[in-house]
Amino acid sequence: MFAISPRKNYVAAGTINGWLYLSMFPAAANHTYDEVLFQKQNTRINDIAFDQQGLFVATAGADSKVRLTTINLVKEAPLEYPFASWVNAVLFIEPMKLMVGTEDGEVYLLNFDQQQLAERCRMRLNAAQLKSYRKD
Question: What does the alpha-carbon distance between residue 25 and residue 7 come to, in Å, rounded to a whole number?
Fold first, then answer.
């Protein structure tokens, strides 16, 4: 699976064993991609989608979860939304709406506020930084 951000500056690729990669797009002048490991999701990635602004990435997982994360928080765990069956497809239809298709033939619409998501991600990042400071 792969997806290209709306601004065509990133490409995300997911593997059957759960690795999610993020690369600058298009390739550099020497035709190489600076591939960066984005996340290990521990499940097969069935689909990937960027939001319309290219700030969030949603993945559909074989473990019945949709994962949503910002492209900036590479080391942070994604926000997870569980479903009753495998999630086969994700598609942003508006800046704050994500359609989700599941193996049992259901289609769901998730409404979310990007500012709330960004705040939750910032809170996670701050908590992670606090933990790392405490270890030092």
Answer: 10
3-state SS assignment for residue 72: coil
| Sheet with strand 97-102: strands edge to edge | 87-94, 97-102, 107-111
Per the document, the length of the chain is 136
Per-residue pLDDT tens for 62-105? Answer: 899 998 887 775 556 678 889 999 999 999 988 778 999 999 99
CA dihedral 55, 123, 17, 83 (to 10 degrees): -90
Omega before 6 cis (within 30°)?
Answer: no
Fold of the 2-135 domain: Methylamine Dehydrogenase; Chain H (2.130.10)
Alpha-carbon gap, residue 27 to 13, rounded angstroms: 14
Tell me which amino acid residue 109 is: L
Closest CA to 48 of 81, 91, 17: 91
